[in-house]
Amino acid sequence: MVAAIIRPGRVEIHVEINNLDKDARQYFLDKVIQDKPTSGAFDMKKLLMYTTGFTGAQLEMLGKEASLYCLRHGLPAITQDILIDQINLMKYGEQHSYLSPEQMFEEIATYEAGRAVISKVLMPHVHIEHISLTPRDNNEHFIADDYNDVQNNMTVKDFKDRICVSLAGRTAQIKEFGFIDGMNTGASNDLQQATRDAYAAIAHYGMDKEVGYININGVMDAKVNVSSTLDTEHYHAKIDMALERWMQEGESSARELVNTHWKTIESLSKLLLEREIIYEDELDEILAR
């Protein structure tokens, strides 16, 4: 019996290893710099920023890739520029963006700081586990929050607050970097969430005054089950107009709130660039100042 239980594949131990923090990454970078032929000065602060999100295996590979680059090009030693080029190749592949990694991190920090601050302003009861410059726990989110407290029995205000928070990141990014440089594809998930929330409030919960107390699924069922001609196109047109109005109102509210709390957003953004990750207790402390 015991032998069957402990047979390979029956009992498994899973050990979760998150992304390395700065001290851990510096240990690996020091090994690369000290154990291999190098030339010139190395800005550790810059290298730590560039290697945000790297694992130990990736940092060991970095040393090997940098050495191979020197061999291929007949170079006697690894320089900081060579390390940074190899870091970028490992993270992004061949360069397709004109943005430097520094600017990418600055944009992410501003985006996440905007979302976090406006979330705390509008929905202080929603827990923000952390904000980060890199995704955590193998998901695509840089900010981990918990909407469980507002999922049940949501009001019009709850929906509109969520829409505003979803739009706050892009709004902050545009304020800092301008309409052209500050608008990128990184807001896709939040825009999708905002649109879903607005549509649900209008079409499923009857929360728009002009559209009225309807559930679009009920209207469609009625058309199928009742021998009458209900004009569902009429409802869809009204819903589309209301959806556009709700999104515009959310954008306007986000812009006003970001402007009002801009100093806090700026401070949090700079701190995030310095620390890479900020957890809930520390975030509450910062925002209470």
Q: What is the approximate shape?
A: elongated
Fourth-level CATH superfamily of the largest domain: Peptidase M41
**SS content category:** mainly alpha
CATH architectural grouping of the largest domain? Up-down Bundle
CATH class categorisation of the largest domain: Mainly Alpha
Q: Determine the mean pLDDT.
A: 82
How many runs of DSSP E, i.e. beta strands?
A: 3
Estimated radius of gyration = 25 Å
Q: How can the largest sheet be summarized?
A: 3 strands, antiparallel
Q: Helix count, per DSSP?
A: 13
pLDDT under 50 segments (min length 5)? 136-141, 224-230
Percent in strands: under 5%
Helix content: 55-70%
Number of domains: 2
Strand order, main sheet: write it out.
2-1-3
CATH topology of the largest domain: Methane Monooxygenase Hydroxylase, Chain G, domain 1
Q: What pattern of helices and strands is seen along the backbone?
A: HHHHHHEEHHHHHHEH
Cα-to-Cα separation, first versus last residue: 61 Å
Secondary structure elements and pairings:
Layout: H1 2-5, H2 22-35, H3 44-50, H4 56-72, H5 80-92, H6 101-122, E1 127-132, E2 143-146, H7 148-151, H8 156-181, H9 188-204, H10 216-225, H11 232-260, H12 262-275, E3 277-279, H13 280-288
Antiparallel strand pairs: 1-2, 1-3
Helix pairs in contact: 2-4, 4-5, 6-8, 6-12, 8-9, 8-11, 9-11
